[in-house]
Design brief:
single chain; about 325 residues; alpha/beta; Nucleotidyltransferase, domain 5; 2 domains
């Protein structure tokens, strides 16, 4: 059976169409659009009318695409921007009224669990401690776990702890950078803010964790590092590793470039992301340093895949019950 999932994030809205085959999923079609739903939410606490229009247009396109791909149902979930917005119910109601789509606003715990499950499902050799990093537009999720590869039917069960940090690439860019390239003072300010946030966070992480990056910043950096001619992509995926030195070299280079120069590095990967990408890479760099990790595994699977895994788990429970 084919079905679709849509993840409505702070910066992007992502569609995934999957085919369920027993207890496994086959990814059929994936699309990402940059709607900037969280634009201004950090200061106004509201989803703007312009952002709502962008989202409705994207969801209308996604609904048509999902139906054309043979999806029998569409599961839609919202995360940080909708959680933080005081007008979230009005936005959810508007989507339902215009498109007939029901939007579930995930709690932080739910988002963490299924982002963790998705990230880990790309690998079959995760033993011991691991730490999944999901840098979003409004927040950064850190999720720790143990022996994920022993929980292949429900990776979320391997999760042991999580923390949601109020530092995302859109939010910090709006708050700290006045231009690109930024000034040295602005870079110092954002680095201090990130380090302080990490130092003040409480997260139980096992010894020598494998660090796994999932979602926009990590996959975009992998694409840029591999180059425009690479066949690695977020639909079919595969193993990809970035060293801390790789991340630091890209951080240095990005902080010297204009938005247009960043976009030119990899037009597809940077579409809608170029202006907030440098802070995303700074976040990766500071997290690697904070946890003293020398490398980052990049998972091509993200929350929209986790939503599909959750639906598959529910279906399996109902069938077995």
């Amino acid at each position: 059976m084919r079905f679709a999932t849509i993840d409505i994030g702070t910066n992007t809205a992502q569609l995934l169409v999957v085919e369920s085959e027993g207890n496994t999923l086959r990814r059929v079609h994936a699309v990402e659009r940059f709607v900037r739903l969280g634009e201004g939410v950090d200061t106004s606490a509201r989803i703007s009318r312009a952002a709502q229009r962008r989202l409705l247009a994207t969801l209308r396109e996604y609904k048509q695409t999902a139906e054309e791909q043979g999806a029998m149902s569409i599961l839609v979930a919202g995360t940080s921007a909708l959680r933080d917005a005081t007008n979230r119910q009005a936005v959810v109601d508007r989507i339902h009224d215009h498109l007939g789509l029901s939007v579930e606003v995930l709690s932080g715990d739910e988002e963490a669990a299924w982002s963790f499950a998705a990230a880990c499902s790309a690998f079959d050799d995760l033993t011991g401690a691991c730490l999944v990093v999901d840098i979003g537009g409004g927040s950064t999720e850190l999720i720790s776990g143990t022996n994920p590869s022993q929980h292949t039917l429900d990776y979320a069960e391997a999760m042991t702890d999580r923390v949601s940090l109020d530092v995302g690439c859109v939010r910090l860019t709006e708050r700290c950078f006045s231009s690109q390239p930024p000034t040295a003072e602005e870079v110092d300010r954002v680095e201090h803010l990130i380090d302080t946030t990490l130092d003040n966070s409480v997260l139980s992480v096992g010894p020598d964790p494998v660090l796994i990056g999932t979602a926009g910043t990590a996959t975009a950096l992998a694409l840029i590092h591999a180059g425009p001619e690479s066949t690695w992509d977020a639909l079919h995926g595969g193993r990809f590793v970035l060293s801390q030195n790789d991340v630091r070299r890209w951080r240095k280079r990005l902080l010297e470039l204009s938005v247009e120069e960043i976009r030119a590095l990899h037009p597809d990967a940077m579409e809608g992301r170029a202006d907030v990408f440098p802070i995303g890479v700074i976040l990766l760099d500071r997290i690697l340093s904070h946890y003293a990790r020398s490398s980052l595994r990049v998972s091509p699977y993200e929350l929209r895949h986790g939503l599909a895994l959750r639906a598959l788990a529910i279906t399996s429970e109902q069938t077995s019950g």
